[in-house]
TrEMBL record, chain A:
<protein>
    <submittedName>
        <fullName>Oligopeptide transport ATP-binding protein OppF</fullName>
    </submittedName>
</protein>
<keyword id="KW-0547">Nucleotide-binding</keyword>
<dbReference type="InterPro" id="IPR003439">
    <property type="entry name" value="ABC_transporter-like_ATP-bd"/>
</dbReference>
<feature type="region of interest" description="Disordered">
    <location>
        <begin position="1"/>
        <end position="25"/>
    </location>
</feature>
<dbReference type="GO" id="GO:0005886">
    <property type="term" value="C:plasma membrane"/>
</dbReference>
<dbReference type="GO" id="GO:0016887">
    <property type="term" value="F:ATP hydrolysis activity"/>
</dbReference>
<dbReference type="GO" id="GO:0015833">
    <property type="term" value="P:peptide transport"/>
</dbReference>
<keyword id="KW-0067">ATP-binding</keyword>
<dbReference type="Pfam" id="PF08352">
    <property type="entry name" value="oligo_HPY"/>
</dbReference>
From TrEMBL, chain B:
<comment type="subunit">
    <text>The complex is composed of two ATP-binding proteins (NikD and NikE), two transmembrane proteins (NikB and NikC) and a solute-binding protein (NikA).</text>
</comment>
<dbReference type="InterPro" id="IPR003439">
    <property type="entry name" value="ABC_transporter-like_ATP-bd"/>
</dbReference>
<keyword id="KW-0547">Nucleotide-binding</keyword>
<keyword id="KW-0813">Transport</keyword>
<dbReference type="InterPro" id="IPR013563">
    <property type="entry name" value="Oligopep_ABC_C"/>
</dbReference>
<dbReference type="Pfam" id="PF00005">
    <property type="entry name" value="ABC_tran"/>
</dbReference>
<dbReference type="GO" id="GO:0016887">
    <property type="term" value="F:ATP hydrolysis activity"/>
</dbReference>
<dbReference type="InterPro" id="IPR003593">
    <property type="entry name" value="AAA+_ATPase"/>
</dbReference>
<protein>
    <recommendedName>
        <fullName>Nickel import system ATP-binding protein NikD</fullName>
        <ecNumber>7.2.2.11</ecNumber>
    </recommendedName>
</protein>
Length: 360, 346
C-alpha cells in the first residue's frame, strides 16, 4: 500500500507512505484529493429568469492522484473524459469546484492571488495547439520574456539573455528570437511553447497533448526534447494524451480517465501488460498496431461516450461495457488496488487479489 | 482485420488484374503570393479491384491533393498541370465537367476528413443522401414510387453504416449526431450509389481510437460485401498496417515508396519510410527508442531536381543531388532512392 491513487489511498496514506518499507520512493510533489470541476450551463439569461435547476457538466468528478517528484504521470482518455480540464483545474487556470490540490505540501486551492502567482512560477503548462497558444503579434523574444516580466524575475538585458539561453535549450537559434510565430512550422512553434513554459524554471509541468497536433516525425522530436529537458532540469510531468502508445513511451505511471473519473491507475508497464478495467482493455485493443496487425483481440465498444451533462448511473462505463452486469447499472464500483498500487474501479475485480475475475 | 475478397494484387506482375484507377505522372500546382507551389509533382499509382490501398504521408506530402485531382476538385488558384488519371481506361483529366459529375458520386466517391464541415448543416442527413440518389441512381422509377424507393435506399444506407433507428434519424440534422456518427453518415452518402472506388481522406483522424476502430471496421466490412476498392488516405502507419493490402508512401509531393504493406513495414527501403517507422512509439516494444527524423519538410516552391529528402536523410550521398526516379525494390515494390539498386545488386 505505498501510493495508491484513489479515495482509498487516503486511508493508506494516513497510516504511512512507507508501510512496505520501500523508503527509496521520492516524495509526493502534487496530490489531488476528490478534485471536482463542474461547469454550470444554467448561467444563461433564461436559466436565471426561470431559476430552474440547471444542468451541470461534470467534467472532472472526484479525481484523487499523486505525482511523485521526478516522475511522469500519464493521463489517458478520449475526448470529453476531462483530462484537459483536470490539468487546468490543478493549475487553477480553471478554478476547481471542490476538492484539494496540494503542491509540495501547500494547499493551493486556498491561496490568494499573490501567493498563487508565486506558486505558478513552479507549475507551468504546455498547450496542445502551437498555432493558437502563441500571440501572433509578438516576437518570440517578447513571448519568452513575458513570463519573466510578469513574475518580476528579470527585465532588460537579463531577460533577453535568459530568452536567448532558453531558445537554444529547445533546439532553436538565437536568430529566431526576432521572428513571429507564423514564420515557424508546427514543430518549431511547439518548441517555443516548451521554452515559454520552462523559462520560469518550474518544477512541475502539465503537458496537455503537446504532440497531438504534430506530424509523426515531428512528434518524435518533441517527445525526445521533453525527455531530455526533464532529465537535465529534474522536472516532474503530468502528460495528457489520447494516444496510448505515446503515454506508454513517456509515462512512469498512468491514470486512465473516463467521463470525469479515474477508472484505472498504476505503473504504465503494468497497465499495458495487464489492463484491468474493461475500458482500458478496449482502449488498448483499439490502438492500431504497426508490427502485429490484428493481434490484439478486438474488443468492440458500441456506441459513443455518454454526455457528461447526464452521466449514466452506477458505473459510468456500463452503457458501452461488454461485461456489464445488473449491479453495474446501479452501483458505482469502488476502486480496488493491489500492493503495487495498480488500481481499477470495476465490479469484476476481486477485492482480495486486485485482479479481474474471468467475466462470465 | 483486413478481409481480402480478391487475390492479393501484389504477387507476380503478370497475374494482376487491370487497375480500377491508374494515375500517371500527375502534376498539380497552386499559385500563391510566394510563387508556384508544386503540391503534387509526378505521382503515379494504381488501385486494383477490391483492394484497400493506403496512401500515407505527413502534412504537405500531397496525398490529399493527389486525390482531390482525381475527383476533379482542384479549383483555382490550383490546377492539374500534367499527367493522366485513368479510371477504367478513361482519362478523367480530359472529361468535361458534366461527364465528370456523372462519374463522381456514382463510380468514384470520396469522404472528407472533417465530417462537420463536409456535411450541409442546413439539410437533414436524409436530404443529403437522397440528393446523391436523385442525381445518379438512374434505375429509380419516376414519380412517387421513385421517391419511396429512394427513401428506402437511404434508410438502408444508414442501416448499413450502423446508425440505430435509421428511419427516424433520416430527418435529423448533422449537428444532432456525434463525430463518429457524422463520419458514418458521410460514408453512407458516399456509398449510396455503390461506387466501385471509395476514396476515404483521413476518415478517422478527428475521432477517438475506440470510434476509429468502429469506423475502419465498417469500411473493411462494406468493402468485402460490395467488392469495391478503397483508397485510405492517412498519416497513421498503424492504420495502414491494420487495414491496407498495399501502401503508397508520399513525401513532399512525390511517391517515395510503394509495395505490399507487410513488406514495406517490416523492411522499408526508402530512408524516409524507415525514419517514419522509427519515430512511432510502438506498444509492442516500448524499450525500443524512438528516433525522430531531423529537420523539416522542404517548401514546395522552386525545388531543385535533387532528392527531396536530402536535407533530412541520414544516408545522403553526393549522388543524391541529381534526383532519382522510382526503382524496383523487390516483388511488387519500388522506392525512390539511389541506395535501392545498390542494395539489390550487392
Amino acid at each position: 500500500m505505498t501510493h495508491m491513487t484513489t479515495d482509498i489511498r487516503r486511508d493508506a496514506a494516513a497510516t504511512t507512505a512507507t508501510a512496505t518499507g520501500r523508503a527509496a520512493e521520492p516524495p509526493v510533489l502534487l496530490r489531488t484529493t476528490d478534485l471536482v470541476k463542474h461547469y454550470d450551463s444554467r448561467r444563461g439569461l433564461w436559466g436565471r429568469i426561470t431559476g430552474r435547476p440547471g444542468s451541470l457538466v461534470r467534467a472532472v468528478n472526484g479525481v484523487s492522484l499523486d505525482i511523485r517528484r521526478g516522475e511522469t504521470l500519464g493521463i489517458i482518455g478520449e475526448s470529453g473524459c476531462g483530462k484537459s480540464t483536470l490539468g487546468r483545474a490543478i493549475l487553477r487556470l480553471h478554478e476547481p469546484t471542490s476538492g484539494s490540490v496540494v503542491f509540495d505540501g501547500a494547499e493551493i486551492t486556498e491561496l490568494g492571488r499573490d501567493p498563487m502567482m508565486k506558486m505558478r512560477r513552479r507549475m507551468q503548462i504546455i498547450f496542445q495547439d502551437p498555432y493558437a497558444s502563441l500571440n501572433p503579434r509578438k516576437t518570440v523574444e517578447d513571448i519568452l520574456i513575458m513570463p519573466l516580466k510578469l513574475h518580476g524575475l528579470a527585465k532588460g538585458k537579463a531577460a533577453r539573455d535568459a530568452a536567448a539561453a532558453m531558445i537554444e535549450n529547445v533546439g532553436l537559434k538565437t536568430a529566431h528570437l526576432d521572428r513571429f510565430p507564423h514564420q515557424f512550422s508546427g514543430g518549431q512553434r511547439q518548441r517555443i511553447g516548451v521554452a515559454r513554459a520552462l523559462i520560469l524554471n518550474p518544477e512541475f509541468v502539465v503537458c496537455d497533448e503537446p504532440v497531438s497536433a504534430l506530424d509523426v516525425s515531428i512528434q518524435a522530436q518533441i517527445i525526445q526534447l521533453l525527455a531530455e529537458l526533464k532529465r537535465e532540469l529534474g522536472l516532474t510531468y503530468m502528460f495528457i494524451s489520447h494516444d496510448i502508445a505515446v503515454i506508454g513511451y513517456v509515462a512512469d505511471r498512468t491514470a486512465v480517465m473516463y467521463l470525469g473519473e479515474v477508472v484505472e491507475t498504476g505503473r504504465t508497464r503494468d497497465i499495458l501488460a495487464e489492463p484491468r478495467h474493461p475500458y482500458t482493455q478496449a482502449l488498448l485493443s483499439a490502438a492500431p498496431r504497426l508490427d502485429e496487425p490484428g493481434k490484439a483481440a478486438r474488443i468492440k465498444l458500441t456506441g459513443d461516450l455518454p454526455s457528461p451533462l447526464n452521466p449514466p448511473p452506477g458505473c459510468k462505463f456500463h452503457t458501452r461495457c461488454p461485461h456489464a452486469m445488473d449491479v453495474c447499472r446501479k452501483v458505482a464500483p469502488a476502486p480496488v488496488a493491489d500492493a503495487q498500487g495498480h488500481m481499477a474501479a470495476c465490479h469484476l475485480i476481486d477485492g482480495a487479489s486486485g485482479k479481474a475475475e474471468a467475466p462470465a | 482485420m483486413t478481409t481480402t475478397t480478391l487475390p492479393r494484387p501484389d504477387t507476380a506482375a503478370g497475374d494482376r488484374p487491370e487497375p480500377v484507377l491508374s494515375v500517371r505522372d500527375l502534376r498539380t500546382a497552386f499559385k500563391t503570393s510566394h510563387g508556384i507551389v508544386r503540391a503534387v509533382s509526378g505521382v503515379s499509382l494504381d488501385v486494383y479491384p477490391g483492394e484497400c490501398l493506403g496512401v500515407v504521408g505527413e502534412s504537405g506530402s500531397g496525398k490529399s491533393v493527389t486525390f482531390a485531382s482525381v475527383m476533379g476538385l482542384v479549383k483555382k488558384p490550383g490546377w492539374v498541370e500534367d499527367g493522366e488519371i485513368l479510371y477504367r481506361g478513361r482519362d478523367l483529366t480530359r472529361l468535361s465537367d458534366r461527364e465528370l459529375r456523372a462519374l463522381r458520386g456514382k463510380d468514384i466517391a470520396m469522404t472528407m476528413q472533417d465530417a462537420l464541415t463536409a456535411l450541409n448543416p442546413a439539410l437533414t442527413v436524409g436530404e443529403q443522401i437522397l440528393e446523391v440518389l436523385r442525381a445518379h441512381a438512374d434505375d429509380l422509377p419516376r414519380g412517387r414510387a421513385g421517391r419511396a424507393e429512394a427513401r428506402r435506399r437511404a434508410v438502408e444506407m444508414l442501416d448499413l453504416v450502423g446508425i440505430p433507428s435509421p428511419a427516424d434519424r433520416l430527418n435529423e440534422y448533422p449537428h444532432q449526431f456525434s463525430g463518429g456518427m457524422r463520419q458514418r453518415i458521410m460514408i453512407a452518402i458516399a456509398l449510396a450509389c455503390r461506387p466501385r472506388l471509395l476514396i476515404a481522406d483521413e476518415p478517422t483522424t478527428a475521432l477517438d481510437v475506440t470510434i476509429q476502430a468502429q469506423v475502419l471496421e465498417l469500411i473493411a466490412d462494406i468493402r468485402a460485401r460490395l467488392g469495391m476498392s478503397v483508397v485510405l488516405i492517412t498519416h497513421d502507419l498503424g492504420v495502414v498496417a491494420e487495414h491496407c493490402d498495399r501502401v503508397v508512401v508520399m513525401y513532399a509531393g512525390q511517391v517515395v515508396e510503394t509495395g505490399p504493406t507487410r513488406a514495406v513495414i517490416s523492411d522499408p527501403k526508402h530512408p524516409y519510410t524507415q525514419g517514419l517507422l522509427d519515430s512511432i512509439p510502438r506498444l509492442s516494444d516500448l524499450s525500443h527508442p524512438i528516433r525522430p527524423i531531423q529537420g523539416q519538410v522542404p517548401e514546395l516552391i522552386d525545388l531543385p531536381p535533387e532528392c527531396r529528402f536530402i536535407g533530412r536523410c541520414p544516408k545522403r550521398t553526393p549522388d543524391c543531388r541529381t534526383g532519382i526516379d522510382m526503382r524496383p525494390a523487390g516483388p511488387g515494390r519500388a522506392a525512390r532512392c539511389i541506395l535501392v539498386g545498390e542494395e539489390t545488386e550487392a
